[in-house]
Amino acid sequence: MSNYQLETKCLHSGYEPKNGEPRMLPIYQSTTFKYDTSEEMGKLFDLEKDGYFYTRLQNPTNDAVAAKIADLEGGVAAMLTSSGQAANFYAVFNICEAGDHVVCSNACYGGTFNLLGVTMKKLGIECTFVDPDLPLEELEKAMQPNTKAVVAETIANPSLVVLDIEKFAKLAHSHGVPLIVDNTFATPVNCRPIEWGADIVTHSTTKYMDGHAAQVGGCIVDSGNFDWDAYGEKYHGLTRPDESYHGIIYTERFGKKAYITKATSQLMRDLGSIPSPMNCFLLNLGLESLPLRVERHCYNAQKVAEFLNDHDMVSHVNFAGLPGDKYHELAKKYLPNGTCGVISFELKGGRETAVKFMDSLKLASIATHVADAKTCVLHPASHTHRQLSDQQLQEAGISTGLIRLSVGIENVNDIIADLKQALEQAR
Ligand SMILES: *Cc1c(COP(=O)(O)O)cnc(C)c1O
């Protein structure tokens, strides 16, 4: 599918029905697959032949959707997971073990912060968090001899910090490690990090890719560009024999697909968290309309951000589409067609005004979610960061009046009218 434009790939990549086959991607809702001889089945277990035998490892519905996302991101292979959390965990754990270290942007999703800072630490993998806006020379200081990966988000959730991907690629590559970029908020419609030097791309497909709040899922895409053999000592899991598969060497046997094959055949085999074929079917439906939806999300968010920016009750708006935003220039470079539909803004009057505003909304719903078709809002001080005191909130850079707004694809005039009346109620 590589000659088609992205909009076409969203509809056609990954599944091409043959004569008389279903036009729509079928749901292979089966745990297992049947073979005529035990020898054929044996070859699958040895990774000698490509094929399906048990859905924890691979399933045709899942694989079709993974192939579509790999094509959209410009990668060579992809693996779907049951959540975005599982995707980020596997992306790192596939190349790290006890005694290793990773560097991660501190502008990242709370779940990623906990995963790398707390849970993976218990596995013996340490993480240093860095301010992504620091110059390269400063970032270099975080790199250690045992660093195995650099991790960051194209547009960070929820801070909306835009990543200088080329700077981070330089940081990673000058130390012989891959750059892993979580591209959830931008989606491949607005940015393809591999084109800027990222080696591995991850997604929470729960967000825009699905787009309808119907399924929780994740994805890891491999660019195929990182030369694991050149740093074979560091990545011996890929470059030395795997005793759990009769001594095969992933880079030797699978070339550019070594990383994803190892993730599937080791991590999925041993840790599970495969998405259900039904959920992959729903994700595929979402992907078909992704470019149309993303375009509308961005259009609506721009109008809403401009409205809020001009409103006397709003003290500040974070949205890289606004010319005055700190990340406007980076967004112009990496996301020239738009960033995403998520905005955060600060209400004068703090917590009380924020709560009154939220409770007065009629169209926008209060939900712990972002990046789907329906407009929703969240007040971090009362929800995601509820356990923090006002002082702790301040230290975390979250003011009591901060609202996170995920602009949906309703008619933008209806969204703005709703915000307007709720702001008046809160005045
Ligand atoms: C939501 C999110 C995740 C976690 O994904 P789940 O599907 O909720 O597990 C990871 N990264 C980013 C940027 C996210 O927005």
From TrEMBL:
Q: Which cofactor does it need?
A: pyridoxal 5'-phosphate
Report the Gene3D superfamilies cross-referenced here. Answer: Aspartate Aminotransferase, domain 1 (3.90.1150.10), Type I PLP-dependent aspartate aminotransferase-like (Major domain) (3.40.640.10)
Q: Give any Gene Ontology cellular component.
A: cytoplasm
N6-(pyridoxal phosphate)lysine modification sites? K207
- Keyword terms, alphabetized: Pyridoxal phosphate, Transferase
Matches recorded under InterPro entries: Cys/Met-Metab_PyrdxlP-dep_enz (IPR000277), OAc-hSer/O-AcSer_sulfhydrylase (IPR006235), PyrdxlP-dep_Trfase (IPR015424), PyrdxlP-dep_Trfase_major (IPR015421), PyrdxlP-dep_Trfase_small (IPR015422)
Per the UniProt entry, what is one GO biological process? L-homocysteine biosynthetic process
Q: Which GO terms describe its molecular function?
A: cysteine synthase activity; O-acetylhomoserine aminocarboxypropyltransferase activity; pyridoxal phosphate binding
**UniProt family annotation:** Belongs to the trans-sulfuration enzymes family.
Identification of the protein by name: O-acetylhomoserine aminocarboxypropyltransferase/cysteine synthase
Species name:
Candidatus Limivivens merdigallinarum
